[in-house]
Amino acid sequence: MQKNTSILSDKKKRSIAEKTAEYIFTGCGLLAVLAVISITAYMLISGTPALFKVGILEILFGNVWKPTGDPASFGILYVILTSIVGTFLAILIGVPIGVLTAVFLAETAPERLAKIVRPAVELLAGIPSVIYGLLGLLLLNPLMYQLELKIFAGSETHQFTGGANLISAVLVLALMILPTVINISESALRAVPKHLKSASLALGATHIQTIFKVILPAAKSGIMTAVVLGCGRAIGEAMAITLVSGSSVNFPLPFNSVRFLTTAIVAEMSYSQGLHREVLFTIGLVLFVFIMLINTALTRLFQRGGMEDDE
Hints:
By secondary structure, the protein is an all-alpha fold. It has helices at residues 2-47, 49-54, 56-61, 77-108, 111-126, 129-151, 166-190, 194-202, 207-218, 220-236, 239-244, 261-268, 274-310, and strands spanning 65-66, 73-74. The protein has 13 helices and 2 strands, in the order H-H-H-E-E-H-H-H-H-H-H-H-H-H-H. The mean pLDDT is 85.
C-alpha cells in the first residue's frame, strides 16, 4: 500500500510539473507573438498618418528629400533603392566568403589553424557595430578617396565624397555579416550525417567533390538560414553605415554618397518635428515591411527548394 501511495504521489508530482512547464512554454510563445503584434501595430499607427498627409506616391516614388525646404519634399525612392542595392551587394560578397570559410573550418582546416580562426570569427561577432564604422572611416574611406581621385581626376561633374560612398558601406556590411554566416553554416555542415561523406568517398569521389556534391547540398537548409539572418543583419544596420556612407540622399551609384533607410532615421530623428518626424516613422514602417517581405520570400523559396529535393 505504501509503495502504491508513493507511486501515485510521484505521478501527481510529475503531472503537476509537466502542466506547469507546459503553461510556461505556452506563455513564452504567446509573449513572443504578442511582441510581434505590438511592434506591428505600433509601426502601422505611427507610420501611416504621413502617407495620407503627404501622399503614398510622393513619399515612395519621389526622389527629392528636402524635409526643411519651402515647400518641403519627402521623396525616399533613392533611400529605398540604396537599401536594396547595398543589401544585395553585401550578401553577394559576404555569403560566398562566409560559406567557404565555414567549409574550411568544418572540413579542411588543420586543427591547430581552426583553433585560431574560429575564435577570430567569434570575436568579429562580438565587436560593436560602431567599431566597424570607425575602422571603415579611418582605413577604408581614405583608400576609397584615393581610388576616387584616380578614376575621376579632371572631372567637373563628379562630387567628391572623401571616400564615404556606397562601396565603403557595402564592404563594411559584408564584413559585418560574416560571423553570422560562418557560424551558422559551420554548424549546419557539422550536422550532416557522417555516413553520407563516407559513402561518397567509398564510391571514389574526392574530398572536394564530396564537399560540393554531397555535404553542401545536405546542409542547404542551415546555410539558407544563415543567409536569411545575414540579410536581416545587413538591412537593419545603422551606426556603422552612418559613418562610412556619407549619409546623403543620392542615386545608389558606387562612388556616390548615399543614405540607407536605417541611417535616414538615425540622422534626422533627433531634431525632426511635426510632419518631418511623422515621415521618419513612415520610413521605419517601410523598413519594417521591407524586412518582413524579404524574410517571407526567402523562407518560402527555401521551403520550396527543400520540397523539390525531397521529391
